[in-house]
């Protein structure tokens, strides 16, 4: 007896059953259909075309299941994840020493040994000097620092103290400076209403990676240290935030875009923005009872330069944008509430 495509023969009842059904899976587990690896399926095709039959390998339940990857949030500073319990434990603490032994853990905060491997920071990235003895840090500077001296203090690395060397921050352009001096410069620039720049190049802004490396070093001596509030770079002149329900969005949504106003076209009905005027597309927001509040918050964040961030080759939106129309097809109110929370937190 031969069953139609998608079905297999149940040898117990002599009836055809679905390959992916409960009985079919049971037959597979019992060894009855281990050779039934090929079944026919109809391929979805555009309307108006005659469907053609194709052959597909192995039903889904016959495929080898890959183990699920464990996903964990990063542990707080000064802790690491236990390989046994997967919980965050204090580095150098009782549980940590029980696993690795005192002074032998992979994240031991004390000085590393002379056998510590040298790590070169990738080009364009930022990083913190290792907590190690002087020879190791000096070796680290030869690999990662553009100059052989601290450009803020003038001291040469091979002549400086271990404590000062441990406070070095490698910035994204390869220059290494002392974290306390860099922190003081940032605070002074922010107080003056300026965007934080490289110490030796006032035309280049510090990156988020620079701020994170600064935080990592500063927290070694000041556990409660927080990154100074960043002043965000403004988008290019001529760009404006456009928010409107238009022929692009339809009546149920609002288009959110950054457009180049120099490319606007005056028509008999008013100003129009052609497709080539769009600089950054933030997608769509659904028109609901709180849409006016959302748009007002977006205007405020635009004035604070917090809706766009500069990246290599251009700009990209923040806070989860862009949102496509399909994003709002389910759990719309819940998603809007979450977005509102993110926007409000960014204003703080």
Amino-to-carboxy terminus distance: 72 Å
Low-confidence stretches: 34-69, 108-117
Report on the biggest sheet: 3 strands, antiparallel
Oligomer: single chain
The DSSP helix count reads 8
Trace the largest sheet across and list its strands.
Answer: 7-8-9
> What share of residues is helical?
10-25%
* Derived structural class: alpha+beta
Give the C-alpha Rg: 30 Å
Mean pLDDT, to the nearest integer, reads 77
Please give the domain count: 4
User: Can you count the beta strands?
Assistant: 18
The arrangement of helices and strands along the chain is: EEHEEEEHEHHEEHEEHEEEEEHEEH
Based on Cα principal axes, name the global outline.
Answer: flat
**Approximately what portion of the residues adopt beta-strand conformation?**
15-25%
């Amino acid at each position: 007896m031969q069953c139609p495509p998608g079905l297999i023969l149940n040898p117990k009842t002599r009836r055809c059953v679905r390959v992916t059904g409960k009985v079919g899976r049971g037959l597979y587990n019992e060894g009855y259909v281990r050779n039934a690896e090929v079944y026919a399926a109809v391929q979805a095709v555009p309307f108006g075309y005659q469907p053609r039959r194709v052959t597909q390998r192995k039903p889904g339940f016959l495929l080898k299941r890959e183990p699920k990857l464990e996903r964990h949030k990063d542990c707080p500073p000064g802790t690491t994840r236990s390989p046994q319990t997967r919980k965050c434990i204090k580095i150098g603490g009782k549980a940590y020493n029980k696993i690795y032994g005192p002074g032998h853990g992979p994240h031991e905060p004390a000085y590393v040994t002379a056998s510590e491997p040298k790590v070169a920071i990738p080009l364009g990235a930022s990083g913190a000097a290792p907590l190690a003895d002087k020879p190791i840090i000096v070796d680290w500077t030869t690999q990662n620092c553009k100059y052989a001296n601290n450009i803020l203090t003038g001291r040469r690395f091979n002549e400086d103290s271990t404590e000062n060397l441990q406070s070095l921050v490698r910035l994204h352009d390869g220059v290494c400076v002392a974290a306390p001096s860099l922190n003081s410069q940032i605070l002074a620039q922010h107080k003056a209403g300026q965007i934080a720049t490289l110490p030796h190049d006032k035309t280049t802004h510090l990156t988020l990676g620079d701020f994170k490396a600064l935080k990592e070093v500063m927290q070694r001596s000041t556990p409660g240290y927080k990154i100074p509030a960043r002043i965000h770079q403004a988008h290019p002149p001529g760009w404006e935030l456009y928010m409107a329900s238009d022929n692009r969005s339809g009546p149920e949504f609002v288009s959110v875009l950054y457009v180049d106003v120099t490319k606007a076209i005056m028509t008999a009905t008013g100003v129009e923005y052609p497709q080539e005027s769009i600089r950054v597309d933030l997608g769509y927001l659904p028109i609901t009872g709180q849409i006016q509040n959302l748009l007002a918050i977006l205007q405020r964040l635009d004035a604070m330069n917090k809706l766009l961030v500069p990246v290599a080759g251009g700009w990209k939106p923040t806070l989860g944008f862009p949102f496509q129309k399909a994003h709002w097809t389910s759990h719309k109110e819940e998603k809007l509430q979450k977005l509102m929370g993110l926007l409000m937190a960014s204003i703080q």
